[in-house]
Every structure is written in C-alpha cells, then in structure tokens.
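Recall from the previous lesson that a structure prediction takes nothing but the amino acid sequence as input. Here we apply that procedure to PXMP4 protein from Circaetus pectoralis. The sequence below is the only information supplied.
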Amino acid sequence: MAGGGDELRALLRAANALLQQHRYRAVLAVLKGFRNGAVYGAKIRAPHALVMTFLFKSGSLREKLKSIAQATYTHSRNLAYFVSTYKGLMALQSRLQGKKIPFHSFFAACIGGWLVFGENNPINSQITMYLLSRILFGLSRLAVEKGYVPQPKQDPFPLVTALIWGTVLWLFEYHRQTLQPSLQSSMTYLYDDSNVWHDISDFLIYNKRTDSK
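The prediction returns the following tokens.
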C-alpha cells in the first residue's frame, strides 16, 4: 500500500512539474480549454433542458430524461470542441507571425464557428441567437466609445426594449414560423393558451384539460 502511495505522489509531482513547463503552455491551454468548455456547456444546458423539457415536451419520463441528456451532451461537446479549436488556432497564428494581432481572434473564431456550430440544429441555433443579441449590444456600445455614434442624451434602453417586444409579438402573431421552435412554444403558452378555458380547473390550476369534456 505504501509503495502505491509513493508512486501516486511521484506521478502527481511529475504532472505538476509538466504543467509548469512554459514550452507546453499553448498545448496545455488547449486541453484546459476543452475541459472548461465541456464543464461550462453541461452547467448551462442541463438546467435549461430540464426546465424546458418538463414544461413543454410530452412523452414518457424515460424519453424526457434521454432528451435532457442528449441536449446536455451536445452543448457540452460543441463548446469543448470550439474552445479547444479556437485556442489552438490562436496559438498557431501567433507562432507563425511571431505576435498576436486582433485579426487572429476573428479568424480563429470564424473557423471554429464554421466547423463546430455550422450545423443548423436547435442547440446551435439557440447559441447563435444568444450571441447575436450580445453582439448587437456590444457593437452599439463600441460605436459610442469610438465616437462613431454620439453619446445618447437619455438611456436608449426603454426604446430598444419597446421595439424588441413590439417586433417579436408582431412576428409571433403574423409570421410565427420565422421564430425558433422553443420561443414559439413559450409564447404559445403565454399568449394563445391563455385564451382557452372551460372551467375553474383549466383556468387556474391547469393550462389545458386532459379529459374529453
């Protein structure tokens, strides 16, 4: 037993020594990026998939749990692949040019996005739309910081919010097919299902009646 413990401690010391080697830093950063992407993707997707599946999806418990596991795995895997691809390409470009420049980030992320998130599926679509909203806000702030757009005299957030809500409800009412399926499901529950009831049971307790009354 003591010999096994000594071997384990020696292995840990060797691993720690390797992690301190500067020449391996780029490769190790790629590996840790893969690890962090996998963990973060699982943390983000699992609770979201759990809530959305039990709120809006029908089927047996086994089918629901399988759907949650599949969504969590896909999000975790894709994010792990993207982070490691991005960091690997960043390190490669920096090594080839001898320095890091802003275009490296854009190019590496474009390649990673194409390879990892290029398939048009519900999870990739949701991630892309999430990023798009953040990009629009970020570019707006950058335009003000750089002086391309004058600093607003009043907070523009109320106007932006009004336009966003007005547009999304217009799309839902008249061009519903253009919205993402999960958003359609959420808005159907909020705005369509609230127009239908038969008695107190499906007015206050349940959303829809399950009997044939």
